[in-house]
Amino acid sequence: MNLQCADCHSIRSNGLCLRYGETTIFQELNLCIPQGKVTVFIGSNGCGKSTLLRSLARLLKPHSGEIILDGSDISSLSTKDVARRLAILPQGPSAPEGLTVLQLVKQGRYPYQNWLQQWSEKDERMVRKALELTHMTDLAERSVDSLSGGQRQRAWIAMTLAQETPTILLDEPTTYLDLAHQIEVLDLLHELNVHENRTIVMVLHDINLACRYAHNIVAVKDRKVWSEGPPSDVVTEKLIREVFDLECRVIEDPLFFTPMVVPYGKGKTPVQAPAASVVSKAAAI
């Protein structure tokens, strides 16, 4: 075991092989998720990002290899023990009709309940804290199915927070949300990382938002990690071409100074910028 890696990473995989039937999704995958950071998986549709996330949460059993969670082989831990260490929010979760936000968030305390220990003052305190952190206190008695997309996603995140886990995994948490609600959810996850020191691992399709919010980006292609590291090191024109088969320019985001991908595909080439004299003349008119 790499002790240095174990000390600074919340989740690791060693020689991980994932399969669906006879189809190999990943082969001999070694991956480290840095503790206390935001990690984002990127890659083309069907490359295995969600499969990898599910395996890290023990929702998919590896064909071979191991996943180490907080220094322990995740396969040796009980279900409740895993649920106390990490929470996962799958893509497009659904709640029973009529379930209130408060009832949903209370379900996050399930890992701490047993026949000896029923609902406690701490459970109540953690639920209130989760509602406060997600700004959902005023909506606690509303039914989940009556909420807007952004509010609904915040309610589900509140449930994961009530689990009181140091690590949170999210599969495409911004899918089906408009841009304003995407930023709302990502800002919330950023705050949880900064103020609560939560390790955040998520799958995102928007590469520019991934660059803005991630400390660490994992690009996936051809059953392996194609590139991994800070956005400025990973997101290049060469990588976008290799991983997404897309032509682009990578420029600096004018607000956050992170990489910003400007795609143009193969059928439409960029227009040359007009000469300075022409621009000046047009401005004068």
From TrEMBL:
Keyword ATP-binding in record: yes
Compartments reported by the entry: Cell membrane
Membrane topology designation: Peripheral membrane protein
Domain ABC transporter stretches: 11-247
A Gene Ontology term for the protein's cellular component: plasma membrane
Keywords: ATP-binding, Cell membrane, Ion transport, Iron, Iron transport, Membrane, Nucleotide-binding, Transport
CDD domains the record matches: ABC_Iron-Siderophores_B12_Hemin
Cited Pfam families: ABC_tran
GO BP: any one term: iron ion transport
Keyword Ribosomal protein recorded: no
InterPro entries, A to Z: AAA+_ATPase, ABC_transporter-like_ATP-bd, ABC_transporter-like_CS, Siderophore_ABC-ATPase
PROSITE patterns: ABC_TRANSPORTER_1, ABC_TRANSPORTER_2
A GO molecular-function annotation: ATP binding
PANTHER family hit by this protein: IRON(3+)-HYDROXAMATE IMPORT ATP-BINDING PROTEIN FHUC
Protein name: Petrobactin import ATP-binding protein FpuD
Provenance organism: Paenibacillus solanacearum
